[in-house]
Amino acid sequence: MTMGTSQLHSWLLLGFGIGLVFGIRWLALRVVMLMASGWRPVLGKLTPHWRRTRPLRAWVETRIPRTYSFARNRFQPRPFTGLPLTLLTGALAYVFLLMGGLIEELLEATELHAFDQGFNAVLQPLRTPLLVGLFAWLTDLGGSAVLVGVTFVSTGFLWADRRSQFILPLWVAVAGSQLTTWLGKFAFNRDRPEFETFVTAPYASFPSGHATAAMAVYGFIAYALVRDLSGSRTRERFEVIFWSLVIIGTTGFSRVYLGVHYASDVAMGFLVGLFWLLVAFTLTEYQRANRN
């Protein structure tokens, strides 16, 4: 492949990727706006069905009052210790199970290894000098230096904005995700792929520290930005969340594209980051509920 053909190939891939991102954004925004405008009528249709269960609920309450009271309190929508905490606890349990399943696949070292090798093989012909340089720059968004700076700057802004209840959870997400990542690296000691580009990395491969940190830090910053937006600003919330996901996803993909991680390393990194992100959500909302 000549240099001119390689550059043309790179620009075409880059243009396709950018177009795909904006296409997904356009579609997702339409879906979100449609859902935002239509959820109240749906809930209104469900209300009569819920009222019909009142005799059954009364019967259960008389038979097992303590159990019924506990279950009812867990599904109350208003207090944080009700439905919000129940949903967050369920999400934490689900992410933990996904992490366990991925670790089990890693220990079996059969199908997961074959998938990782196949995914790297697919990317091999797509690695061009232009895109390698671009992703080498983008991957620094998940690097320790950048994320430490982002965390300190975010802490300063949160303190200045008198939103100190976000600061401790932010650092819990950062510290917890990094500690878990390093424990995983030393516990599994997975070898990295053979380096395909000029980008190299020390230490073990599983899980990806860049993916973990990007999910925990950028995810929490997005949450802090949208948490106190007024209810009518659905589009602003969408934009913050969508572009934060783009940054997180791009950072994770860059590690595989540059050949310093397997796809499963990045997947586990995202799960570890998401787990600690949910822990940070829970801690923040608990503090806010007690403050109010």
Automatic annotation (TrEMBL):
Q: What domain of life? A: Bacteria
Which GO molecular function entries does the Swiss-Prot or TrEMBL record give? undecaprenyl-diphosphatase activity
Top-rank EC class of the record's enzyme = hydrolase
Q: Which Gene3D superfamilies match?
A: Phosphatidic acid phosphatase type 2/haloperoxidase
Transmembrane parts of this sequence: 12-36, 82-103, 134-159, 166-188, 208-226, 238-260, 266-286
The family database entries (Pfam families) matched by this protein are listed as: PAP2 (PF01569)
- Domain Phosphatidic acid phosphatase type 2/haloperoxidase per the UniProt entry, residue ranges: 166-281
InterPro entries named in the record:
PAP2/HPO, PAP2/HPO_sf
Q: Provide the reaction this enzyme catalyses.
A: di-trans,octa-cis-undecaprenyl diphosphate + H2O = di-trans,octa-cis-undecaprenyl phosphate + phosphate + H(+)
Q: Which CDD domains match?
A: PAP2_like_2
Q: What is its EC number?
A: 3.6.1.27
PANTHER family in alphabetical order? AT30094P, SPHINGOSINE-1-PHOSPHATE PHOSPHOHYDROLASE
Name of protein = undecaprenyl-diphosphate phosphatase
Which species?
A: Thiohalomonas denitrificans
